[in-house]
Amino acid sequence: MEPATLTLAGILLLALITVESGGAFLLRVTTGGKPSNDLQKNWYRAGHAHAAVLLVLALAILPYTDAFDLPAWATWLARSGVPVAAILMPAGFFLGVLGEDPQKPGPAAVLVPIGAAVLTAGLLAAGIGAIAAGQA
Question: What are the UniProt keywords, alphabetically (predicted)?
């Protein structure tokens, strides 16, 4: 594996520790230790789930990116799209419902669809890169 790929893998593995601490926070929310309304509970769950799944997905895709014969920008997008989405989408879920008793998501919720767009672009680049490498 390329050194940059291994470095990113290490960063992603360490980022999973934040998901673990997010799980502890979610446990406090669901057991009443952290007062939250239903909107917050649902969005916190979604943020936690997206963070975990997207980080694991990023780790699964990462080794393949070294075999891609794409332009540098497309390889960068294939390697970085899912990890960036793993930051943006959960951030939107958590930050979008900050406050004492929000009745609707706040402005930070825009990070969710932005993250989804980045996720789509990264998966598209990785999928095309994998197919092209397999056909070569």
Answer: Membrane, Transmembrane, Transmembrane helix
Q: How far apart are the first and last CA of the chain?
A: 19
Domain boundaries, the chain: 3-135
Its pTM stands at 0.91
pLDDT at 136 over 90: no
> How far lies 18's CA from each of 65, 121, 124, in Å?
25, 25, 27
Give CA separation, 112 vs 20, 30, 67, in Å.
Answer: 21, 22, 30
Could you read off the pLDDT of 45-69 as tens digits, one per residue? 999 999 999 999 999 999 999 999 9
Predicted pLDDT of residue 55? 97
CB 80 within 8 A of CB 4: no
